[in-house]
Design brief:
Length: 312
């Protein structure tokens, strides 16, 4: 083997390790930067989700036949499982006016204000909790939107035997006869599976239970999604399986957001590459990423502290 070939074979692992170190540094910087909530980024995300929802709304919510076919399939499955409680709860609201009225107000009002209020509370009081919680909410919403497109489903109120309680109370002037919690122009009437209404409520309850300090606040937070699940069936807007489906969606979102990805990334791109780089082959810090180490020193210091803690 020539000297030149020998030098190339010795420097190739160092070059590969240098690329891995660069990737790790950039990932560390991105995690550090985006871990801090920034108002312009939050507005950009909200606007992007709105545009995505509008696009999916224009694609779906128009095909009546598959929507009713899917709704019938959900009802039939619930009957086989003996969990078809929607009719009983809907009739309960019809027989007791106070139940119907409270359910209508709950459905139309809390859906937006509880979600906005919970997000604002987290943003102000717990930035780290808000960052993770907002990612869970974003993933949940996007996966639910995919469900609306792939499986348009007619809600119970569109079937014979059910009473549309929100249509009955629309004379109050708070909402349209459709009972939509938002403008009709933004609503897909066949967006029943999974229930994003229940999904946002479960998200609120989860965030309150995780991050609230007072016990009574946590108890109220845990009760809120339970009440929402009952309300969407009393008003005949969702099936019980819609709530079960969104629970599975949120479980996936939580697993993605709360997994220790930093440790996984460090193991994949950082520590293994760093161990393979010898002192002679290692590049100067300024050559690896100009100016990056100086800007990222606080983040890297935190990483070192975590590693020391793991060893201890």
């Amino acid at each position: 083997m020539s000297i030149t070939a020998q030098d190339e074979s010795q420097t190739r692992p160092a070059d590969q390790a240098g690329r891995g170190a660069r990737v790790f540094l950039w990932l560390t910087w991105a995690r550090t930067y985006f871990s801090v909530p920034r108002w312009w980024l939050e507005l950009a995300v909200i606007y992007s989700i709105y545009r995505i929802y509008s696009y999916i709304r224009n694609l779906g919510g128009k095909d009546v036949e598959p929507a009713f076919r899917h709704g019938t399939a959900v009802l039939d499955l619930e009957k086989k499982l003996h969990i078809d409680v929607e009719m009983s709860l809907n009739r309960l609201g019809e027989h007791f006016t106070i139940v119907r009225d409270v359910a209508s107000v709950h459905y139309h009002t809390l859906h937006w204000w509880m979600t906005i209020g919970t997000a604002a509370w987290l943003f102000i009081t717990n930035k780290a909790g808000y960052r993770r919680g907002s990612f869970v909410l974003i993933l949940t919403t996007l996966m639910a939107l995919a469900g609306f497109y792939l499986m348009p489903t007619a809600p119970p109120r569109m079937y014979d035997g059910f009473v549309d309680t929100l249509a009955e109370t629309s004379s109050w002037g708070w909402w349209s006869p459709s009972g939509s919690p938002g403008p009709d122009s933004l609503s897909n009437q066949f967006a029943a599976m999974p229930s994003l209404h229940c999904g946002w409520a479960i998200w609120c309850g989860l965030m309150i239970v995780l991050y609230a300090k007072r016990t009574w606040v946590r108890v109220l937070g845990a009760l809120y999604p339970v009440s929402t699940i009952l309300v969407v069936m009393i008003t005949a807007n969702h099936y019980i399986l819609d709530a079960v489906a969104i629970m599975a969606v949120i479980a996936v979102a939580v697993a993605i957001v709360y997994s220790p990805w930093s440790a996984i990334v460090a193991a994949a791109f950082g520590r293994r590459d760093a161990q393979s780089v010898t002192v002679d082959a290692a590049e100067p810090e300024s050559a690896v990423l100009p100016g990056a180490l100086q800007q990222m020193s606080p983040a890297l210091a935190c990483e070192d502290a975590d590693r020391v803690g793991d060893v201890v």
